[in-house]
UniProtKB/TrEMBL annotation:
Organism domain of life: Bacteria
Protein name: Sensor protein FixL
Signal peptide: none
GO biological process, one term: osmosensory signaling via phosphorelay pathway
NCBIfam families in the cross-refs: sensory_box (TIGR00229)
Domain PAS: 6-75, 135-188
Source organism (scientific name): Pseudoduganella flava
PAC domain sequence ranges: 83-134, 212-262
A single GO molecular function term of this UniProt record: phosphorelay sensor kinase activity
A single Gene Ontology CC term: membrane
EC number(s) on file: 2.7.13.3
Family annotation (SMART domains): HATPase_c, HisKA, PAC, PAS
EC category name: transferase
InterPro entries on file: BphY/WalK/GraS-like, HATPase_C_sf, HATPase_dom, His_kinase_dom, HisK_dim/P_dom, HisK_dim/P_sf, PAC, PAS
């Protein structure tokens, strides 16, 4: 191909350039392409010389580009990079990529006009732009959909942005507050102090809110004041300092906290009343009850020969009911102390606890209590765990209806918790009564036949659940019953 003089004179410069460059004539033929351009497009050196410029473009763009090229050649002028064309180019292998083009007309004294084109592969820049656009879209979505209010201000305290949550919170639209001082959203005295605080921070760097969270008050458009949680972050955009405030309306939380405080005060008062009641029960009721019991025992003994069978039965019922009343008072006192009076938790050897419980209950000759060997040592309150086993074993003995009764106490290690069970071969319980028997003062057998206060199982349930465990019963009428309970090894 005959290379024009202007192209030949620039050949050495194009070959030395690291940018992809080519020279084309007025008809759009490539007169000269440097090595950088050949490498960029995946062609062999010199392979593009003499070909039409549009060979570097996708087929769908070639016709339109040819028309643009012809228009340019009618009035050629320099077009620097940055304001030049951004085109989709195509490599020899058919893959497309974006390029930016700058154009410089060349005058050839021996022939027609030429154009020097410099091409930059802007794939990385485009990827960065797309990533930035995606990031901006994500940030915009967060800004628009955030539940908390977001307010941005400049270093003078002038508001620039409010997200929809902040608009709803304060009652102002973004357009209404843009350009106004953020102190308008604050009640006094914070409103008057704000500008001074901001100036102090900018001058000294001493932080009071920046980078921290604190509870403050906000001022709505209607003049109402509400509690809010505020966190402020500082950022720089070029030479500008900007501040972003994250605002959360904590009106509901504050109301809940006030309600909790009120309930705690009521609970404290109720506990104090319960303590007073327990004192009255212990001292003012049991004393006369003991007197009645002693008097009834004295009458039954000294006047035994004066009573007929009916009178002796009445005296027996009177004495039993006095004893039951005393036991009921003791049960109520024990129930009221659970969770209110706490012991120090210490390692408790359950072998010893159960031996003492069985010894204290002194089962009759017709009932055998068997404790599984190797009961574990657990960290708990000694009195409370003793009450649990005492009540379960006592219930089994008390309701035993077999001449050869047996009560078995077993245990199992279930990893995170212990499981204990008390099984008897007594009368059993119908499934419809399973929930009822754990309620306070509930008994299944007539009290004149079986002495029971109806407190024992309720006390067991309250103690076990206080430790984070559960109590269950399995039983069928006539086939005995198994009361089992769990205790977490990490008790609360």
């Amino acid at each position: 191909m005959n290379v024009p003089l202007a192209a030949r004179s620039l050949g050495w410069l194009l070959d030395a350039a690291t940018d992809a460059m080519l020279i084309c004539d007025a008809r759009g033929r490539i007169v000269l392409a440097n090595g950088a351009l050949a490498r960029l497009f995946g062609h062999a050196p010199g392979a593009l010389d003499g070909q039409e410029l549009e060979v570097l473009l996708p087929a769908g763009l070639r016709a339109a580009h040819a028309r643009l090229r012809e228009q340019y050649m009618d009035q050629p002028r320099p077009r620097p990079m940055g304001i030049g064309l951004e085109l989709e180019a195509v490599r020899a292998d058919g893959t497309g990529f974006p390029v930016e083009v700058s154009l410089s007309p060349l005058r050839d004294p021996e022939g027609p006009s030429l154009v020097l084109a410099t091409l930059h592969d802007i794939s990385k820049r485009k990827r960065a732009e797309h990533a930035l656009q995606a990031s901006e879209a994500r940030m915009r979505a967060v800004f628009e959909t955030a539940v908390d209010g977001i307010i941005t201000i400049d270093e003078r305290g002038i508001m620039e942005r409010l997200n929809p949550a902040a608009e709803r919170m304060f009652g102002w639209s973004e357009a209404e507050v843009a350009g106004r001082n953020v102190s308008m959203l604050m009640p006094e005295p914070d409103r008057s102090r704000h500008d001074g605080y901001l100036a102090h921070y900018l001058g000294t760097g001493e932080q009071r809110i920046i980078g921290k969270g604190r509870e403050v008050h906000g001022l709505r458009r209607d003049g109402s004041v509400f509690p809010m949680e505020l966190a402020v972050a500082e950022m720089r955009i070029g030479e500008r300092r900007m501040f972003t405030g994250l605002v959360r309306d904590i009106t509901a939380r504050k109301a809940a906290e006030d309600e909790v405080r009120r309930l705690l005060q009521e609970l404290t008062g109720a506990n104090e009343e319960l303590t007073s009641f327990a004192y009255v029960v212990s001292h003012d009721l049991k004393a006369p009850l003991r007197g009645i019991g002693s008097l009834a025992d004295w009458i039954a003994t000294d006047y035994a020969d004066k009573f007929n069978d009916e009178g002796r039965e009445h005296m027996r019922l009177l004495i039993n009911r006095v004893h039951r009343m005393g036991a009921l008072i003791d049960g109520i006192l024990q129930y009221s102390r659970v969770g209110r009076v706490r012991e120090t938790r210490v390692p408790v050897d359950l072998n010893k606890v159960l031996a003492e419980a069985v010894d204290l209950l002194a089962p009759s000759t017709g009932v055998t209590v068997r404790v599984a060997p190797g009961m574990p040592t657990i960290v708990t309150e000694p009195t409370r765990i003793g009450q649990v086993f005492h009540n379960l074993i006592s219930n089994a003995i008390k309701h035993m209806d077999k001449p050869d009764g047996h009560v078995d106490v077993t245990w199992a290690d279930e990893g995170a918790q212990w499981r204990f069970a008390v099984t008897d071969n007594g009368p059993g319980i119908e499934a419809r009564h399973f929930e009822r028997i754990f309620q306070l003062f509930q008994t299944l057998a007539p009290r004149d036949r079986v002495e029971s206060t109806g407190v024992g199982l309720a006390l067991v349930k309250k103690i076990v659940e206080m430790y984070g465990g559960t109590v269950t019963v399995q039983s069928e009428p006539g086939a005995g019953a198994t009361f089992s309970f769990t205790l977490p090894k990490a008790q609360r």
